[in-house]
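retry 2 of 3: previous attempt timed out while embedding 4'-deoxy-4'-aminopyridoxal-5'-phosphate. Reduced batch size to 1 and resubmitted. Inputs unchanged:
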Amino acid sequence: PIVYHDFEFVLESKAHFDVQDRGVLFADGVYEVVRFDRGKAFAMQAHVDRLARSMAGIGLEGVSATPFAELSYELLERNQLSDAKVYWQVTRGPAARDFVVSESTEPTVTLIAYPTQPIDLDAPLAVGAGHIVEDCRWTRCWIKSLMLMPASLAKTEAVKAGAAEAIFERAKPGTDEKHITEGASTNVFIVREGQLCTHPDDGWVLGGITRQTLLDLAKHLGLPIREDAAFTREQLLAANEAFVCSTTQLTAITSVGDAVIADGTPGPTTQRLHEAYRALLLQGG
Ligand code: PMP
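retry 2 succeeded.
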């Protein structure tokens, strides 16, 4: 496979990181994952905008997010792919190891294309279990940072427990009440009291592009929405429906630990949103 690394398209085996890259030493960098179906990106502008926000969020300067769109299309062409997840990464670049960020580093840009299957309208909705893990991440989850250790360990624990996704729970400073924030690499939704509920996009979660797309679709379908308040573990367990979503998946959560959610099958709102979402993906957004 061909990747884009450090200003050029090269064979993956020829692309290397400087051992002193701050991405390697400090996880000092940000990323995005964009989905391409039949040669067309979904929500490209939203990814470009979020990359720009993430870079600004860590004070990473000198890289424009705009060219990532064109670079992605060229990467797909060079790999002769039309269905792929394209990973974008910007690190602050190499510098002698120092906690203090120097202003003179040259950022390292990397793009990798991972082949996927085209959207299949007949494929069944994915179903899995959730596994609750303490959310020990920092308080700037709106930045899509490379610092993914808490999410990686949580997901590993979840998969070991037979679950499809780790679901983070945390108490905000100054409060005792814990809330569900999001998944290791997904946003979490429930349906309760006839409303579609998800954690507010307030910095304690990543503002998922799929999250926003599904909220827009739900509005369009006339479904009542609640995104001004987080929900608790108890509300998740007692929900009528639950699901997790990201650029690469929409999975109905039918149990959490030993607790079965509702009747243990994907609910009607989840199914409806899944259908509407896939139709939108097929249209290319
Ligand atoms: N939350 C977290 C922590 C994530 O890592 C991701 C995906 N990278 C998401 C939510 C979902 O975001 P999106 O829908 O933009 O893929």
